[in-house]
Design goal:
Blueprint lengths: L2 H10 L4 H8 L3 H8 L7 H10 L14 E9 L4 E2 L6 E4 L10 E6 L12 E5 L10 E5 L4 E8 L4 E3 L10 E2 L6 E10 L3
Parallel strand pairs: 1-4
Antiparallel strand pairs: 1-3, 2-7, 4-5, 5-10, 6-7, 6-10, 7-8, 8-9
Helix pairs in contact: 2-3
Length: about 190
């Protein structure tokens, strides 16, 4: 949800900044910064606002695909600070994706044989089963994320890179949380 639309909906429904801040679980100061464009909405905040204002992901017009939020970057290399802010929206290329799916831009070259730096990938956070050969975004205890391929025997998250300097993450040696499965690559031609 963009800031102009949020301001318009708040004005139409006579919602106060304090009330919307309470709804989002943030301070009124944070909401004020958001409305001034100095802070981005987090993914969960944007979803909560869409539900509250009755904005649907899917439009009845069958020719118009649902929109997926772009929530920042994911590292294809070393661990990187996690993503949370909604920066844009893109149409879903496939209606079979869950409504919770989101888009991140790949940064780094540890997955360049799958998705080059700068390309966008779609992550489905409802798809949490680890399947050998599939791709996943994971988050470590510090909130940093990375994008890798899951392989088994032994269980590990491996780079798919033309750069041999990238390291495999062996499961059990380093703690992480599964964010979701990378389902598709978004490419502009």
């Amino acid at each position: 949800m963009d800031v102009d639309r949020l301001k318009r909906l708040m004005a139409e429904r006579k919602e106060s900044q304090a009330g919307i801040a309470r709804l989002l679980g943030i301070t009124p100061d944070k909401l004020s910064k958001t409305l001034k464009g100095k802070r981005q909405l987090k993914l969960d905040e944007a979803n909560r606002l869409r539900r509250y204002f009755g904005i649907r992901d899917e439009v009845p017009d069958s020719d118009r695909p649902p929109m997926l939020p772009v929530v920042g970057l994911v590292s294809a290399g070393a661990w990187r600070d996690g993503f949370e802010g909604v920066t844009d929206w893109v149409p879903a290329p496939d209606r079979s994706l869950s409504r919770d799916s989101f888009v991140v831009r790949v940064e780094g070259d540890s997955m360049d044989q799958v998705a080059a730096a700068g390309e966008q990938v779609i992550v489905d956070p409802r798809d949490m089963d680890l399947i050998a050969g599939k791709y996943y975004v994971v988050r470590n205890a510090e909130g940093e994320t990375t994008f890798k391929q899951y392989l088994d025997n032994p269980a590990r998250l491996a780079p798919c890179s033309s750069n041999p300097s990238h390291q495999t993450i062996f499961i059990g040696r380093q703690g992480f949380t599964l964010v979701g499965r990378v389902r598709k690559k978004v490419s502009n031609l």
